Amino acid sequence: MGEMPSGKITLGRYMWERIHQIGVDTIFGVPGDFNLQFLDSLFHIDGLKWTGNQNELNAAYAADGYARVKGVPGCFVTTHGVGELSALNGIAGSMSEQVKIIHVVGQTTRAMQKNHMMIHHSIGNKPDHQIYNKASAGLRYAAAELWDIETAPAEIDRVIRECFLKSGPVYIFLPLDLSSEQVDASLLDKPINTEPDVNKAAQEKAVKAITDALQEAKRPTVLVDAWTQRFAAVQEAAALVRKLNVPFFSANMGKGVVDESEEMYVGVWNGEVSTPGLKEVAKAADLVITLGYIPCDTNAAGFSRKISDSTTIHINPHDVVVLGTTYPNTSIKSLLAALTSALPSTPTHTIPKPTLPRPRTPLDHAATHLTQSFLWPAIENFLRAGDCIVGETGTSNFGLCDITFPPRTRFITQIYYGSIGYATAATLGVECARLELSSSHSSAEESGRTVLITGDGSMALTIQEIGTMIREKHKSVIFVINNAGYTVERLIWGARQPYNDIVPTSYAHLLPLYHHPAPESSFHRVTTKEELTAVLAKKELQSPEHLQLVELVLDKLDTSWRLGTQLAWRSEEHRKYLTDEGFVDTYGGWGLEGSAGGDVKWS
Ligand SMILES: Cc1ncc(C[n+]2csc(CCOP(=O)(O)OP(=O)(O)O)c2C)c(N)n1
Ligand SMILES: [Mg+2]
Prior knowledge:
The protein is an alpha/beta fold. The structure holds thiamine diphosphate (TPP) and magnesium ion (MG).
């Protein structure tokens, strides 16, 4: 952090100083005439950097990726109306997935607002300039609707604190004229308290209830999920599973939150869509402790991970539910630390780690062309410790959930909100954050790489952000699955319908379009298994000096078994649809034992 300013500073400067103080070093966004002046003041702050985006939706996604990796809010700036509205889908994703975001909106001046002036970007003859602010009201935890210079600094501080406590988006609406008014720089001396208040009495009660239940249990297990990461409790979760020393699992969204290289880690417990043997081990538990659990369809295999209240403890971000009884007003990070220290140093349970059956052999193992069943194990071998893996909605997320991650992996993906295009633009923010964090590592190997795996349909939505990555000299490795369209949608409905096709794209032209410095050696097209093996071994991908783009040509009816099985599980009719349409059935029978369809009412 640079020298603290003294005397009077503008409100714009005050806002950036506050945002920088909480650990934000990169600001994303798109300029507009209602934010330009206060954008200038961020360049006066040592260590604070502007990374402009190709559009506001991408800015929101990039800020989201940044926040997930750095553990501090992602921050981006837009302009009145046109800019702030374009970002809304990204903001909703951060709301849905509990990602800390500060969205700064440069608004029209207060005089323009009071006089309902017909300023560009407004609607009607007597425009309400706050109409766009109202549009985002349900998609944020707090908003500083700044108007008065006396209260503005405290309002900014309030929403920054809320951003940490709620772990989600907050807004700062800043009328352009107000941004240049002056406030005391001494207000910066006292840092914003971003820690939640801990109700010790509530925490003690909850810890006691959990330890009592653990005493009773013969075969407890733990299921780690993503809110643990969003609410900054990763280390506490790792300490807990180590001290408990019982076999534990992750949900799809919780992959990599606790290292998969941990001694007692078993794998991804995804209800009926789990590798053979795994769900039997999970079901044998007489007590399940969930950490930061998200039981949505895409994270619970179509609601097929049945866990009953009477045998479950949910440790949620703000409360704990022990066998159906709720203990409110807790905070996951502090609670996990207290729980771990309350456990005996010699583990109560001695449950050996289960031995699972050997991996199945895919029916298409003899094919020479590239297949999904060959791709994912190859990606597993390619990944290494410290990598940030960004996965996209589509076949790629399901493939990624099928492989084991090396230590210190961070998995960035929107499995709940699932807005396609997210992953490509988020990759920009992920790499910015990874580089900021890795400046403390001694070697490039230790700090890993940023690896994006996305689909052709998804990438099309946000493809321009690759230009920003090239401009920023990022060295991320990007894999795009070219399977001629929306395969995941084909699996759901309309296998061969034209609405599931996309515009054929020549990926070889992408890097030159954005002035990539070495496009020939950085673009790789793969159609066979042999080519994939050769490309993954190249030094350009192992230790990239420039951004790398790998086009993976796959059949449009090929899918990762996890996705096929999740859909086949819905009903016998759907299983038949998949077979009749000729989708690749990796292991036969769609990987299901017995008949499909649970008791979920889908319609
Ligand atoms: C913004 C948005 N629009 C539409 C959808 C619906 N949708 C979900 S997945 C998908 C297709 C993804 O295709 P692709 O990225 O090519 O992945 P594939 O399954 O082919 O690997 C679509 C259109 C969505 N989730 N988000
Ligand atoms: Mg596709």
